[in-house]
Write a structure and sequence with these properties.
The complex is a heterodimer of chains A (about 260) and B (about 230).
Chain A lengths: L1 H13 L15 E5 L7 E7 L2 E12 L10 E6 L16 H16 L9 E3 L3 E13 L4 H15 L4 E3 L2 E3 L16 E8 L2 E4 L3 H6 L2 E7 L5 E7 L6 H19 L3
Parallel strand pairs in A: 4-6
Antiparallel strand pairs in A: 1-2, 2-3, 3-6, 5-6, 7-8, 9-10, 9-11, 11-12
Helix pairs in contact in A: 2-3
Chain B lengths: L17 E5 L7 E7 L2 E12 L12 E8 L15 H14 L11 E11 L4 H15 L8 E9 L2 E4 L3 H4 L5 E9 L5 E4 L2 E2 L3 H32 L1
Parallel strand pairs in B: 4-5
Antiparallel strand pairs in B: 1-2, 2-3, 3-5, 6-7, 6-8, 8-9, 8-10
The chains are: A alpha+beta (about 260), B alpha+beta (about 230).
């Protein structure tokens, strides 16, 4: 059954047609809303077609790591809560959730989009920890890109809470001060099915792919994070093609932020 | 000191502004969100579906499996650590019991109806908002129900008996009692009743009377949400 589906999909892709009528390099409609959840320091909701992901940030004051006494830290969590997909189960994060969180984390960390030195309150004593939690509400495919976009949007929306006597006062109104963001990476995931490359895969396309590559592209087109997935290997040519697609698409998606 | 005026200016028997929508999660068999003030609950129903592992199956009926979960960024103050705790387990249990009376689980032997409730934002009254959302989601899933369930917390703040306490009221510096109640709409039977704080019998009974009226208002919002889904489609 699955093999029939796949040969059918490959045949259609050859003609540059997808099940939902899109071209292979076409994203579904994207919308981003900011500032929905007031107990979070920043929040956002991203919709890519019927896929819906929310993200929220919390800021905490902690003692810094001893090897980096003047730098803040970040933490990214993805919870594949069972509301979003009948196959998600309760319990501790499984490898699918951890992989998404790690790819988003690397994009943020390695692009240096948050100036960690500016998160230092007092060297060796107190620095800010930025915690980003990402939760899919409805999973119709491409959680990687939706999660990354939601994280970027929530970070943009983030405002520092007030500090009283060295402690965070979450009850008081937030300050107007935003995070020291520099260059946001945009994550683009391209899947390969047969010989064809497809962006923004639906769940059905995702289930039939041979391999995938997520590319986090910075503002200046520098690449900040890569993650290849699934069983089939890729040729150097494949990778070149995907990076080319990713750069074009990243520019498009960046405009939505 | 007496509590004559509520902190947010509401009347004693006034609910916070509500908003509800059915069918908000396409992948789920039934879904809804229910907002009351700053408390926001999403509910998704999956099933009836096969229950695994098999030894958990009951050949005489389905089981209702409820999971209450506050999202990490939903709380006042620090981040909520994901993965649940004793509190969320207990709330899952009382929400299940609040909804069971309206379901005919013997229709679905060996199955499970999964009900997942997630809170992106909380400001007191979460279990009640969860029940309100869940009732809409179960109806949206097309599961036969004898009645709808609405839920609200009533209680006492100092000398006043009030409906739908918010976070500031629960934390008010005076004797406070919080009484979450769930009421079946037609029979007016009570399927959830908890209390903590201190309250006299008189205040409690007055509160329960107010809860009944408030639940009628919530019921209107629930029915409107369900009907609106079919107007749009």
């Amino acid at each position: 059954m699955e093999r029939d589906y796949k040969s059918h999909l490959i045949k259609a892709l050859k003609k540059n047609v997808r099940y939902d009528g899109r071209k292979t390099d076409e994203y579904r409609d994207i919308s981003i809303e900011y500032g929905l959840f007031h107990n979070a320091e920043g929040s956002a909701r991203v919709k890519i077609g019927d896929t819906e992901v929310i993200a929220g940030t919390k800021l905490e004051l902690n003692t810094p790591y001893s090897d980096r006494p003047d730098e803040g830290t970040i933490m990214v969590g993805v919870e594949l809560t069972p509301i979003a997909n009948p196959n998600f189960e309760l319990g501790p994060p499984r490898i699918e959730a951890i992989e998404i969180a790690r790819v988003v984390d690397r994009g943020i960390r390695e692009s240096h989009m948050i100036n960690m030195k500016k998160l230092c309150v007092k060297a060796g004593e107190a620095v800010w920890t930025v915690i980003i939690d990402i939760i899919p509400i409805n999973d119709e495919g491409n959680l990687f890109d939706a999660a990354s976009l939601a994280a970027m949007a929530a970070l943009r929306d983030t405002k520092f809470p007030q500090v009283k006597d060295g402690k965070v006062d979450y009850e008081a109104e937030k300050t107007k001060e935003t995070l020291p963001l520099e260059k946001e990476p945009i994550s683009i995931t391209v899947i390969k099915v047969g010989d064809d490359f497809v962006v923004d895969p639906t769940i059905k396309e995702w289930a039939l792919m041979d391999s995938r590559l997520s590319v986090a592209v910075g503002k200046d087109e520098v690449i900040h994070a890569l993650q290849k997935g699934e069983e089939k290997p890729m040729s150097l040519e494949d990778i070149k093609t995907i990076i080319k697609i990713a750069k074009v698409k990243a520019k498009e998606l960046r405009k939505k932020l | 000191m007496s509590y004559n005026k509520r902190l947010d200016g509401r009347k004693m028997d006034e609910l916070r502004p509500m908003e509800a929508k059915a069918g908000v999660i396409k992948r789920a068999d039934g879904s809804a969100y229910f907002k009351i003030g700053n408390t926001w609950a999403y509910a998704a129903v999956y099933g009836p579906r096969n229950l695994y592992p098999k030894f958990k199956q009951d050949p005489s009926r389905a089981i209702l499996r409820v999971n209450y979960n506050m999202l990490p960024f939903s709380g006042h103050g620090n981040r909520v650590r994901p993965g649940g705790n004793r509190r969320s387990k207990e709330l899952s249990l009382v929400i299940e019991k609040a909804l069971l009376p309206v379901l005919n689980l013997s229709d679905f032997p060996n199955s499970v109806i999964d009900l997942f409730i997630e809170f992106p934002q909380t400001d007191a009254g979460t279990r009640c908002a969860g029940i309100c959302a869940a009732s809409i989601a179960l109806a949206d899933a097309g599961i036969a129900m004898k009645d709808m369930v609405a839920s609200v917390s009533v209680g006492r703040v100092d000398n006043a008996v009030v409906v739908d306490l918010n976070y500031d009221e629960e934390a008010y510096d005076a004797p406070v009692a919080d009484v979450p109640v769930a009421i079946l709409h037609r029979s007016k039977e009570i399927s959830l009743l908890q209390m903590d704080g201190d309250i006299t019998e008189e205040q409690l009974l007055k509160g329960l009377e107010m809860a009944e009226k408030a639940c009628d208002k919530i019921h209107e919002v629930q029915v409107k949400a369900l009907k609106a889904k079919y107007v749009e489609e």
